[in-house]
Amino acid sequence: MKKTAELEKKSDVIEVKGVLDSDTIMTILPVGYRLIKSLTIITFDFRGVTQADSTALALLLAWIRYSRKQGKKILYTHIPIAMIEIAEACRLSKFFSFKTHLN
At 13, phi and psi to the nearest 5? Predict the structure, then answer.
């Protein structure tokens, strides 16, 4: 079964879905750039992510860097706990605006 990832814009929220790893992030990276450029308020919702590894953090950092160049801020919601733990272990959590939900 082929792994996939996708972004879907729903009103003011960009829903991230599927597997985020080295095989999939390069397909959604430029899509994220286009959405960041087109929106005023940027919220990525990761509720639909089924699997993620450390390369997903590189994706998030790339979008942060791009949004700053655009003069915008990003909010990441429903980040999988595994991604938060990787960010904390790598001492990268200070670079992210995570809004976590435990339920």
Answer: -120, 140
- What contacts 19, CB < 8 A, 6 or more positions away? 3, 4, 5, 49, 50, 51, 52
Say which amino acid occupies 86. Answer: I
Q: Classify domain 5-99 at the CATH superfamily level.
A: STAS domain (3.30.750.24)
Tokens, residue 30: 């430029």
Which residues in the chain come in under a pLDDT of 50? 101-103
Q: Where are the domains of the chain?
A: 5-99
- List the beta bridge partners of residue 75: 43
pTM of the model as a whole = 0.88
